[in-house]
Amino acid sequence: MVEADLPEFTLMLDAVCGMLSRGTYTPNDLSTGMFFRAMARWPLADVRAAFDAHVADPQRGRFVPVPADLIAQIEARAGDDGRHGAEEAFAQALAAADEAETVVWTAETAEAWGIAQRVLATGDEVGARMAFREVYARLLDEARAARRPVQWQAALGHDRNRHADALRKAADLGRIPRAEADAAAALPAPRAPVLLLAGGTSVAAVEPSPEQREAMQAPRIAIEARAAAPSADVLERQRTAALRAQAAEKVAAYTGDGAAA
């Protein structure tokens, strides 16, 4: 807010305080000025919405507001902007390791994945997850502090059937326009991944060499192999069963030899 917003802010504050105190309290000029300075970093429209949310809040709305009440309402609204949590975003990004797959993700997920992918390429899945979470959290804080709306974008994979299904599902969720999803779904599968921005702009990536493609696919293949492999508990049970079988064979052989003697 700016100084010119003070009169309207004062009217809102007086009205809310008067209503919630049943007419027994109206802020004085000093407290109004302190309240205004505490809220000055947000636009007047956000502060107005926070007043409305406070009045409608079944818990906080029973009391005259203080700046912390309005800040909590503003932060709650900012956190409900459609962006995924870090774990869900990482799971979505991990699918992008498969170049045939189409993913529709936020700009923050795409950027954080660009960092985490370098760590994942070394085979360190835990490190990649940690790097992703750290970068993603920072990007979310920056985007919400700047009040940037969520921007969904699609990275088109090589499998045409998959990218058609992914784009139409994203359109059903309202993440990209229906017309753009249908138009992109009708395109032939790209030779290289294509970035489809929400505004309709498409940017083709550089076609990787066979060596680069193999290097990019290696981490995903390794992760899938580890997931398919027997767990340590299963291997230990199998080893124990084999040792028992060997011992039983020796006992049977010894018993048979003793009987024959």
SSE map:
Elements: H1 6-20, H2 29-39, H3 44-56, H4 67-79, H5 86-94, E1 103-106, H6 107-120, H7 125-145, E2 152-156, H8 160-172, H9 178-185, E3 194-197, E4 202-204, H10 210-228, H11 232-260
Antiparallel strand pairs: 1-2, 2-3, 3-4
Detailed description of the structure:
The chain is an alpha+beta fold. The protein folds into two domains: 3-79; 86-223, no CATH class. Helix content is 63%, strand content 6%. It has helices at 6-20, 29-39, 44-56, 67-79, 86-94, 107-120, 125-145, 160-172, 178-185, 210-228, 232-260, and strands spanning 103-106, 152-156, 194-197, 202-204. Strand 3 and strand 4 form a beta hairpin. The longest helix is centred in the last third of the chain and has 29 residues, at 232-260. The chain starts with 5 loop residues before the first helix and ends with a helix. 20% of the residues are buried.
Determine the mean pLDDT.
Answer: 78
Strand content: 5-15%
What is the chain-wise order of helices and strands?
HHHHHEHHEHHEEHH
- Count of individual domains: 2
Q: In whole angstroms, how far apart are the ends?
A: 103 Å
Helix content: 55-70%
Helix- and strand-based class? alpha+beta
Number of E-state strands: 4
Give the strand line-up of the largest sheet: 1-2-3-4
Q: What is the number of helical segments per DSSP (H or I, 4+ residues)?
A: 11
Outline? elongated
Keywords:
single chain, 261 residues, alpha+beta
